[in-house]
Amino acid sequence: MDRYTELRSYVLVATRGSFAAAALVEGVTPVIMGRRLSALEARLGVKLIHRSTRGLTLTELGESYLENARALLSNFDELDASVSENESAVRGHLVVSAPAGFGRRHVAPHAPEFQARFPELNLSFNLTDNVIDLVREGYDMSIRIGEVLDPNYVAIKLYENQRVVCGAPSYFAAHGYPQTLEDLTEHNCLAFNLQGGQHRGWTFQRDGRQVAVKVAGNLYCNDGELLFDWAKRGLGLSWRSVWEIQNELNTGELVTVLDEFALPNYDIQGVYPQQHYLPAKIRFFIAFLKEVYNRPGYWIQQ
Hints:
Blueprint: H1 3-16, H2 19-26, H3 30-44, E1 49-52, E2 55-58, H4 60-82, E3 92-98, H5 100-106, H6 111-117, E4 121-127, H7 134-137, E5 141-145, E6 153-159, E7 163-167, H8 169-175, E8 189-192, E9 202-206, E10 209-213, E11 220-221, H9 224-232, E12 237-241, H10 242-251, E13 255-257, E14 268-273, H11 280-293, H12 298-301
Parallel strand pairs: 3-4, 3-5, 8-11, 8-12
Antiparallel strand pairs: 1-2, 5-14, 6-14, 7-12, 7-13, 9-10
């Protein structure tokens, strides 16, 4: 077994906290991840991780080794990227995080086409509405919707998008239309719970400034697809991305309100950690998704 594989496996196990979670990223079994860690410890002659029925705990040596291992892996990637300027360099393993609903509909389905172009590359996806720490959790990149404020990340716009308030005609027939942002407090708003984010409330633009409105309703969850379904059933108002509701807007199943306050530039973006050399696998995957999303009629047909 090569040292790079041992090192990467150790970082994944240490950051994910279990062999099973790390194995999912690598596309192998937990047993194999355990063997890789044992081989690394045997070669070094030290204990890096304590295993028990309660879980895994890093030793003091394991903590310091983890920090250096991350730096070394980053240097490896930069070294590879420095000579990876063509398609033949797209190989290895690309680990991507994406929002659950968007990832199911607009990221993972395109994996076979991308892999057909680059058969030496393996792809792993984690579809979650939680914001992932890419470096700490061992991801190469993520797809995110909306503004990326962390200066340690680079965000590349893949396609334009807006965030709007919408509801079913049946809801508006029963409860009327909000005319101002303040009117939202009088409506049943379907929002993410604490686990799903949106802690500040729904965000809008008024008089050139962003404002957040705290909303409330009788249904909360951490799954965007479920909120979307509730809105289509007329159970309340929802704050959704245009990419998600385009078909329903076209058919009249959903109607937007307060459009003059809609948050602009809530774009679909490819995000990766700041690094001196960008690995070819990341660069080409971002270029590929941008190509797909800008194909004529793509969003109308979804």
